Amino acid sequence: MPLSDQTLTRAEELIARYPQPRSALLPILFLLQAEDGYVSPAGVAQAADLLGLTKAEVGAVATFYTMFRRRPVGKYLVSVCKTLPCQLRGSREISAAIAERLEVPLGGTDQSGMVTVEEVECLAACDGAPVVQVNTENYERLSTSEAMELLEALLRDEVPPPTFAADGSVTEPSTAGLHWRLAGLGDPPATLGQEAEAAEGSGDPEAAHEAPGEPGPAPERGDRT
Amino acid sequence: MTDQLKVLTSRWGDNRAHELDRFGELDGYASLDAAFERSPEDLVQLVKDSGLRGRGGAGFPTGMKWGFLAKGTGKPTYLVVNADESEPGTFKDMELLERDPHALVEGVIVSSYAIGCRNAFIYLRGECGWPGRRLQAALDAAYGEGLLGRDIKGSGFDLDVILHRGAGAYICGEETALLSSLEGQRGQPKLRPPFPAVEGLYRAPTTVNNVETIATVPWIIRKGVDWFRSMGSEKSPGPKLFSVSGDVVNPGNFEFPLGVPAREVIMGAAGGMRDGKSLKAWTPGGSSTPMLTADHLDTPMDFEGISGAGSLLGTAAVMVFSEDVCMVRACLNFTEFYAHESCGKCTPCREGTDWMRKILGRLESGQGRTEDMDTLKDICDSIFGRSFCALGDGATSPIVSALKHFRDEFDEHVSGGGCPFPGARVAVGAQH
User: Fold this and answer.
1) Contact B319 A85 (CB under 8 A)
2) Domains of chain A
């Protein structure tokens, strides 16, 4: 099953936290993503099992929200804001340059499985335009060349300090850790990222990442052409 | 000149204000004793008397909203804080949570006491990592000091607060969609009535209030109605955060009394236009509010003043566009947003936003037709007021207002075979 026995206990903790169990569905989907890298069909089945829902009910929820992924995401999720205040300050040049460097369409993951790049809507930091996020931490007022330096660092598995580092802000070292935190369980366990890295290092990148960079067979919500 | 205020922003200059001990030194949690000395009914009346209006966009009177909460239902009453800040141009709540997260926690405690809530929820965007860490740390610290949990400060009042993270959906800022999402459903709006005050979270009486609204409540409790009403206007009293972005020298959040002239926010606090350009258009309250022009700069920025100018105060998110910004391109950008974020429940919004995106796209790329402007207006007419929630209405705002003020630019896109403005548009619609 997607969740280990140990993590399953944490999922039950989430269910107990809410007045009604189903409120734990979004947190559990984040938890599944933390362990699997995406919301897999087996993960959907497990969430349904945990909450007494049908797989269709869970699938309907998982496909509604953009942060739930139906294919594995890289260790670093680079999200470039495309809404007008950021676009006026060059965000689309940044997203295009990153996609070109990674040789993937927007939404894709590079061949190494390290970086996923996407364009997203307003990130509520318009005074910092253009805003680029790495695992939801802000890198603000970047020029295209600064954004490319950030990308090169991530490809070397280095995480430069985010804009508010002086205030104590830190970037989540992996999307696995990010998704664990979003589940509402606090700091991710030290082993979480290591497992993901071990899986990545285990050889076949296709097995770990299902043809990174290719558009998925089932379009994400909102992916209209 | 109107002076900038230091109420909600009073602790923003202190880089330790997010720590509980420092927050306490800065009068933090001072409203708790004052609140617990009074009856909950008194506090609801106090907030009614203050005239506080919701800071999340609609401007509904907060005390009245609380007064609508159904009594004697045998069900719990819930406070749900809307921290799903996603309206393009709005970034006030996230900065508040980064710099002064305990201000929200304090507001949640006294507001919960006022409405008889024992389980409060804060629904925070998933995409905002730093405000999330700060808020979680503040909640943990408050629990550690006995400011949350059982018998808070010996008052006999119990309160638990759950921080719940969103997963990427603008629509969840709409209160019924937010509650659906919090229940583990797709975040789709529901028909009202029943209003959340009667049947909200888990079909129990629920109030959904914005971060800034709840963070304002402790100030009213501590300083009183007269103090609060000494700021702003008769119908729109109190301090307000204004988020200014776009083509200004100094984008950022600025705190003014409601009713401050837009000119003082844009040309004063935000430093005026960058690169010496002239102002072409601005939004008073995010992309969902009709754009205004340089002719409207002396409009008082309160709910009545902005309505009088034909727009809406919304979230007071002032996006400023210079003479270099193509209005067709601006509308296309916003319409891409609405087409992406429409939840798909109501046909006029789901289909209409996508049609408008396509029409604006062809105008911008030189494939526009003479009749496109009429078609756009017609689609806006068919969306406005014909969906469950305000998302569709908001989607029509930029287009209707741009056609009203800048019709010539649209015509030029047709007659000139494309966009007359410089600057190649990169990756048009690449992901959508």
Assistant:
1) yes
2) 1-73+174-208 (1.10.10.1590), 76-164 (3.40.30.10)
Going by C-alpha positions, the residue among B429, B29, B417 that lies closest to residue B219 is B29
Contact between B296 and B307 under an 8 Å Cβ cutoff? The reply is no
Q: Count residue pairs from A and B with Cβ separation < 8 A.
A: 194
Q: Is the peptide bond between B251 and the residue preceding it cis, with omega within 30 degrees of 0?
A: no
Nearest CB neighbour to A106, from listed B253, B333, B430: B430
The amino acid occupying position B70 is A
In this prediction the pTM is 0.94
Q: Is the peptide bond before B189 cis (omega within 30 degrees of 0)?
A: no
User: How many domains, in total, are found in chain B?
Assistant: 3
- Report yes or no: B253 and B242 within 8 Å, Cβ to Cβ: yes
Residue of A nearest to B331 (CA): A84
pLDDT tens digits, chain A, 225 residues: what are they?
689 888 999 999 999 999 999 999 999 999 999 999 999 999 999 999 999 999 999 999 999 999 999 999 999 999 999 999 999 999 999 999 999 999 999 999 999 999 999 999 999 999 999 999 999 999 999 999 999 999 999 999 999 999 999 999 999 999 999 999 999 999 999 888 555 444 444 444 344 444 343 433 343 433 333
